[in-house]
Every structure is written in structure tokens, then in C-alpha cells.
Design a protein that fits this description.
Blueprint: H1 12-21, E1 26-27, H2 28-38, H3 47-59, E2 63-66, E3 80-83, H4 85-107
Antiparallel strand pairs: 1-3, 2-3
């Protein structure tokens, strides 16, 4: 079994975190704001829930604590997080899995853009 497959399916929060970090390192608040933006505020992680998920994902090797950006205006107390190579592989595997689910739903006329059958 592919190592990334062992993590699937991801929770919506875990997938959202990986997607938020796909473009580069972010601090916790930045991750929260990105998740709200990418989901149209349908997924909102409380601080405790988010930081528990970040710790679990670090323990699993999906993300790491990253160096802070060299912006002097940035709060130096903030922790930044970044994807690991494994985290990127898991995010891709989850995207493929969700694509396959959507393809099946469309085939069964249950997906978006389909006309309901009899």
C-alpha cells in the first residue's frame, strides 16, 4: 500500500490544513483564515481544535514547524507550519480520492451538474 494511502480518508479539517499550506508556510491564524476563505466559512476551526490537529499532523509527519519569514513586522511569537513531502503526497492522494468519488457520483447522476434520473 502506498504510504500516503494509509492516511486516507482525511477529515475535512486535516485536508483543509494541507490545502492551506500548499502554497507555503503559514501561522495558525493564517491557516484559520485560509480555511474559512477556501470553504466559504463552512469549515471553521476553533483555536483548540486547530492546534490539536496541527500537533497531530506534526506527530504524523505531514507538517513541520517552519522558520519564520524574515518580515520584521511579523510577531516573532507566532509558530509557522509547512507541508512535508509526505504531507504533499497525502494531500494529492486525498484530492485523487475525492475526484474519484465525484466521478462515481456523476456516473450515478448524483453529482453536481447532472440531471436526476428516474
Amino acid at each position: 500500500m502506498d504510504r500516503a494511502q494509509a492516511f486516507l480518508p482525511l477529515t475535512p479539517l486535516s485536508h483543509a490544513v494541507l490545502l492551506a499550506l500548499a502554497d507555503g508556510a503559514l501561522h495558525g491564524y493564517g491557516i484559520m483564515k485560509d480555511i474559512e476563505a477556501q470553504t466559504g466559512a463552512r469549515v471553521r476551526a476553533g483555536t483548540g481544535t486547530l492546534y490539536a490537529a496541527l500537533q497531530r499532523m506534526m506527530d504524523e509527519g505531514l507538517i513541520v514547524e517552519a522558520d519564520r519569514p524574515p518580515d520584521p513586522d511579523e510577531d516573532t511569537r507566532r509558530k509557522y507550519y509547512a507541508l512535508t513531502e509526505l504531507g504533499r503526497l497525502v494531500a494529492r492522494a486525498e484530492a485523487r480520492r475525492l475526484s474519484d468519488v465525484l466521478t462515481l457520483a456523476r456516473r450515478k447522476r448524483l453529482g453536481p451538474g447532472t440531471i436526476p434520473g428516474p
